[in-house]
Amino acid sequence: QEPLVESGGGSVQAGGSLRLSCAASGYTYSSNCMAWFRQAPGKEREGVGYITSVGTIRYDQTVQGRFTISKDNPKNTLYLEMTTLKLEDTAPHYCPAHYKAVCQLQQELFTAWGPGTQVPYAS
Predict the structure, then answer these.
(1) CA dist 78 to 3, 41, 55, Å?
(2) Which of 30, 34, 100, 110 is 20 to 30 A off residue 6, Cα-Cα?
(3) What is the pLDDT of residue 23?
(4) pLDDT tens-place string over residues 94-107
(5) Contact yes or no for 39/92 (Cβ under 8 A)
(6) Cα–Cα distance, 97 to 71 (Å, whole number)
(7) What is the four-CA torsion angle of 102, 103, 106, 111, rounded to 10 degrees?
């Protein structure tokens, strides 16, 4: 089993909603820190939000109040519920994880990355 596999991506319009999933292997799902990142073409990869193994959740200010991170422990799956979508939200999204003590939205901390799922804008 791949350690992390994202799914649920699809074309979206402004104001729309979408839920992304990240299926993890048992070992990876028990990581201290799991997060969502995104990277639009020509831009730096940016953190969307993270959740720690004890359930602490933090969001980037650009998505605060619009996005929700959750976990389904029996399914070893991480979710990202996105609402009131904006053009700047349309980018491939990634679900990384790591076992380090500090959980922050710094991509260099994350050691395991999924292949990503596309979230393009529906013109």
Answers:
(1) 12, 24, 12
(2) 100
(3) 96
(4) 999 999 999 999 99
(5) yes
(6) 13
(7) 80
